[in-house]
Amino acid sequence: GLARGAQAAKIQDMAEWNFSIPVSMLGEMKKYSDGVTLAAKGEGGLKEAIRKDEKGENGKKGYATLLGDAPRSYTRKATVHYWSTLDSSYQMLVEIASDGERNLEDWRKLLRETMHKAFEQACPHDTPRQIEAFVKAKRLLKI
């Protein structure tokens, strides 16, 4: 992966992943792709819980908006934790995708748990105001 800054010629961040996929899974790439799509939706849900959710039901607001903070630092910390955990758990998705009998429910469960842990780790919840914002925004965590 490669992330570029505002200036197209300047590299901002770069990462590389390597992992093995069993030959038997080649016919099941659709299920694997669906799992990756769910993970991306989980990241979106995590980010949305942290920043303002203008289109949410009852005009709910995200964590940073409730505290009056800029969401960038919380979002970065949460997404790094989220993807680091999923990267270390990729084998689970590979096993699910290569097993024709299993559906993605175990993967969804892992995604939900990871979203909640990432949110808890990234967003402070020590003061009464933080706790109130934390609880309200945590309800927005969905895939």
> Which residue ranges are poorly predicted, with pLDDT under 50 across at least 5 consecutive positions?
none
Helix and strand succession? EEHHHHHH
Largest β-sheet summary: 2 strands, antiparallel
Number of helices: 6
* First-last Cα distance: 24 Å
Determine the fraction of residues in helical runs and give it as a percent range. Answer: 55-70%
Average pLDDT metric? 81
In total, the number of strands is: 2
**Which strand-content bin applies to the residues?**
under 5%
Q: Main sheet: which strands, in order across?
A: 1-2
Could you describe the 3D structure shown?
The chain has 143 residues and is mainly alpha-helical. Helix content is 57%, strand content 5%. Helix 1 packs antiparallel against helix 4 (90-98) and helix 3 (72-88) runs antiparallel to helix 5 (105-122). The mean pLDDT is 81.
Explain the layout of strands and helices.
Elements: E1 2-4, E2 11-14, H1 29-50, H2 63-67, H3 72-88, H4 90-98, H5 105-122, H6 128-138
Antiparallel strand pairs: 1-2
Helix pairs in contact: 1-3, 1-4, 1-5, 3-5
